[in-house]
Design a protein that fits this description.
Elements: E1 2-8, E2 13-19, H1 22-27, E3 31-39, E4 44-51, E5 57-62, H2 66-78, E6 95-100, E7 111-112, H3 115-123, H4 132-146, E8 152-156, H5 166-169, H6 175-181, H7 190-204, E9 212-218, E10 222-228, E11 231-235, H8 257-266, H9 270-279, H10 282-287, H11 293-303, H12 306-330, E12 335-339, H13 340-345, H14 347-354, H15 366-371, E13 378-379, E14 388-391, H16 396-409
Parallel strand pairs: 1-6, 6-8, 9-12, 12-14
Antiparallel strand pairs: 1-2, 2-3, 3-4, 4-5, 7-8, 9-10, 10-11, 13-14
Helix pairs in contact: 2-4, 8-9, 11-12, 12-14
The chain binds adenosine monophosphate.
């Protein structure tokens, strides 16, 4: 079965075509047939596509909207010269999986898209005004282009965290406000945390119930998740992806009073303050240099830039704080798993985070840590480390494709 996986941002589209079915899922034998990215939809768009085993195709052309971008992708996929094995026309795409950022309290797992589901996703726009409309554009365009015969599935960033208990997801604000406006922690990166937990179980041979781990998705957006008995019981992102760890440009945890104070002092609107907290804060805000962790580390190592070091230290400090908090609430923690761009590639950051955590039973092996780069899945802790430490590359697209297959074929979804 060829599954077209689509991840739409406000001005970008990312896709993969994955050859998969239930047997291939069970054997871990899926194949990526093609993938690609269109950036700057709405103006002169930048295109990078790649079919398996072939040189990348790059281009720049104006694409008006998401539908035009999707049509462009389809034209490329089905062009004879692209030569994607098994894909000759639109009829060779058998199902579509859409990443949807916010499923609110309603969507607790992936679901086949129909009019009612679309309405449900539309109802969540208030909760994710930047993301859900973009995801919906991809859904509307795919329905128009592929027609009703091609099943489409929504996979939500929030659903993995729907297992969080009330004491974890509630903010300490009047309960009626939660009830009325659904203001609570939802958590994001759920597909990634879920995939890392699944890989951990495969590596260790432990069952879901036996898995008690902390997953660290450290990328441009970062979040931590406490997974107890296979279920998310706490996560660092909250009502929006602004809460929690320090990120590339996002501030993470902050006293909400700062918003009012800054708006008052600067004479700016609440929107302007949130723009600062979302786009000009975090690693970029502290270093004043970059939101890119690789460049930041280079600035520190080569030029000894003080604020680059401060940003690195703050980033590590926040992650450490969450590890401590999660170890405390989990009662039992067997492993910490690093993932995403920074977690998978940066021995410096992993070492900085793990340093001085020996008292918690966390000890990494420096040589193994140095080796774990470029997509390697491996254990990096010493044999004596009471809490094991792993590097586990994430693969959200694979989860999108797998959920799509299971939903379409009516196979039970893994509950967590
Ligand atoms: P992601 O959002 O998961 O794609 O991760 C992007 C982040 O990973 C950026 O901040 C990159 O600088 C960072 N990253 C990628 N490779 C490395 C590396 N070798 N060392 C440090 N950070 C890296």
């Amino acid at each position: 079965m060829n599954v077209f996986v689509l991840n739409c941002g406000s001005s970008s589209l990312k896709f993969q075509i994955i050859d998969t079915d239930i047997e291939k899922i069970e054997k871990d034998e899926e194949k990526i047939l093609a993938k690609g990215l269109i950036e700057r939809v709405g103006s002169q768009s930048l295109i990078t596509f790649k079919a398996e085993g072939k040189a990348p195709f790059k281009s720049a052309t104006p694409l008006r909207d998401h539908k035009a971008a999707l049509n462009y992708i389809i034209k490329w996929i089905t062009a004879p010269e692209t030569e994607i094995p098994g894909i000759n026309g639109l009829e060779d795409i058998h199902a579509i999986g859409h990443r949807v950022v916010h499923g609110g309290e309603r969507f607790k797992s992936s679901i086949r898209i129909d009019n009612e589901v679309i309405e449900g996703i539309e109802d969540c726009i208030d909760l994710a005004p930047l993301h859900n409309p973009a995801n919906l554009k991809g859904i509307y365009a795919s329905r128009e282009i592929f027609g009703p015969s091609v099943p489409q599935v929504a996979i939500f960033d929030t659903s993995f965290h729907s297992s969080m208990p009330e004491e974890s997801f509630l903010y300490a604000i009047p309960y009626q406000i939660y009830r009325r406006f659904k203001i609570r922690k939802y958590g994001f990166h759920g597909t990634s945390h879920r995939f890392i937990a699944y890989r951990y179980r495969l590596i260790t041979g432990l069952s879901r119930e036996e898995s008690n781990i902390i997953t660290l998705h450290l990328g441009n957006g970062s979040s931590a998740c406490a997974i107890k008995g296979g279920k998310s019981i706490a996560t660092s992102m909250g009502f929006t992806p602004l809460e929690g760890l320090m990120m590339g440009t996002r501030c993470g945890d902050i006293d909400p009073t700062v918003v009012e104070y800054l708006a008052h002092k600067e004479g700016s609107s609440v929107d302007e303050v949130f723009s600062i907290l979302n786009k000009r804060s975090g690693v970029l805000g502290i270093s004043g240099l970059t939101n890119d962790m690789r460049d930041l580390i280079e600035e520190w190592e080569e030029h000894k830039d003080r604020r680059a070091k401060l940003a690195l230290d703050m980033f590590n400090y926040r992650v450490k704080k969450y590890i401590g908090a999660y170890v405390a609430i989990m009662n039992k923690c067997d492993a910490i798993c690093f993932s995403a761009g920074i977690g998978e590639n940066s021995p410096v950051i992993r070492k900085g985070i793990s340093e001085n955590l020996e008292f918690l039973g966390i000890e990494i092996d420096d040589k193994l840590n140095e080796k774990a780069v470029g997509g390697k899945e491996m254990k990096i802790s010493t044999p004596d480390s009471r809490i094991a430490v792993y590097v586990i590359p994430t693969n959200e697209e694979l989860v999108f494709a797998r959920d799509t297959v299971r939903v379409v074929l009516g196979h039970p979804l893994p509950t967590r």
